[in-house]
Write a structure and sequence with these properties.
With about 325 residues, this protein is an alpha+beta fold. The protein has a domain of about 150 residues: C8orf32 fold (Roll). It is about 15% helix and about 30% strand. Strands 3-6-1-14 form a 4-stranded antiparallel beta sheet. Strands 4-5-2-13 form a 4-stranded antiparallel beta sheet, with no helix packed on it. Strands 11-10-9-12 form a 4-stranded antiparallel beta sheet, covered by helices on one side. A hairpin with a 5-residue loop joins β4 and β5. The longest helix has 14 residues. It is globular and about 60 Å long. The protein starts with a strand and ends in a 45-residue tail after the last helix.
């Protein structure tokens, strides 16, 4: 199954601003990237490095004035929904792999140590299997209201637990927190999620956040926001919490004038180079053939982009992904 994913950011700055971006489909994830490109106007020098979690990050300097950066990719994904293994066992802490231990500890947005008593009160009687993580997702899905704009860059999992409202970022954070409070390794993840085999919501496409938990001897996907297996996830990044996978970090003042995200299935017979707006009504621009991404060369010059629907201005410096889910 082929999916076209990507995004376009438009910034305005009053001077050069060093910037990090995390929007590229992670090369070592379960999807297979068939084509990808990076496009910038004006042309920018963009370096790429892998952070400590293996996420591919771009490093660039936004120039004075307006600039546009676009990522576009065609990927092959499984047509199967997220796997569910109800009897998969949890591992006791002494048997966990060394590299999983950091994901049992509190972090900036996941003060899991402050949720210990509540987590054990709620979930101590659940089986020490996949069922315990599913019980956590069920509780979050039933008790936390999804509401656009209800949280900000400073909102933690504890805030979400107390206020019982959030966006998909917050659903993922509280899922991670409650798992860690129960000694289950959990890590925050985000990426592209097309609306395959589900009714698309009546709001623009955006990035989506979920979490992964270590169960049955490996990492598995859990999504407390939707709380049902989904098809076509395309991973961008993972880390301890949202601060590790901020889609954009600016070291200075930069106004995000607009952002558009696309994640659409390309049906058999469809031309992926056509305007996806015509294919799926999502408003994505035509595919620009600027060549495959090569971290050693600057982003290619491309044709000027079309007008995009604007989003509210936001400070992107500490901003984790706040996606619609």
């Amino acid at each position: 199954m082929r999916v076209r994913v990507g995004c376009e950011f438009r910034f305005e700055t009053a001077g050069p601003v060093p910037t990090l971006m995390l929007v590229r489909a992670r090369p070592d994830a379960e999807h297979q990237t068939l084509y990808e490109s990076r496009w910038a106007e004006p042309s920018l020098d963009v370096g790429e490095y892998d952070d400590v979690f293996g996420n591919p990050c771009w490093r660039l300097v936004l120039p004075n004035g307006q600039s546009t950066i676009r990522y576009d990719a065609l990927v092959e994904v499984s047509g199967d929904p997220d796997p569910v293994l109800p009897d998969a066992p949890l591992a006791s802490v002494e048997l966990l792999p060394d590299d999983a231990l950091q994901f049992t500890l509190p972090s900036r947005y996941v003060p899991s140590d402050l949720l210990l008593d509540d987590a054990w009160r709620l979930f101590a009687d659940t089986p020490p299997t996949w069922a315990r993580i599913q019980a956590i997702c069920d509780w979050i899905h039933a008790n936390v209201e999804y509401k656009t704009g209800s949280s900000g860059p400073a909102t933690t999992a504890l805030d979400v637990y107390q206020e019982r409202v959030g966006v998909c970022r917050d659903f993922a954070l509280i899922g991670v927190a409650l798992c860690r409070a129960m000694n289950i390794p959990a890590r925050y993840t985000f990426g592209y999620l097309p609306d395959i085999a589900v009714e698309p919501p009546d709001i623009p496409m955006d990035f989506h956040a979920w979490f992964e938990a270590y169960v049955g001897g490996r990492w598995h996907t859990f999504d407390a926001r939707h709380n049902t297996p989904r098809i076509g996830r395309v991973l961008i990044g993972r880390g301890r919490d949202a601060v590790d996978v901020a889609m954009c970090t600016t070291y200075g003042s930069a106004t995000l004038q607009s952002m558009i995200v696309w994640a659409d299935e390309i049906a058999d017979g469809d031309d992926p180079t056509a305007d996806t707006a015509a294919l799926a009504g999502r408003g994505a621009p035509p595919l620009v053939d600027s060549g495959n991404i090569d971290p050693s060369v600057p982003a290619g010059d491309g044709a000027a982009g079309h007008d995009r629907a604007t989003t509210e201005d936001r400070d992107t410096r500490p901003a984790p992904a706040e996606a619609r889910g």
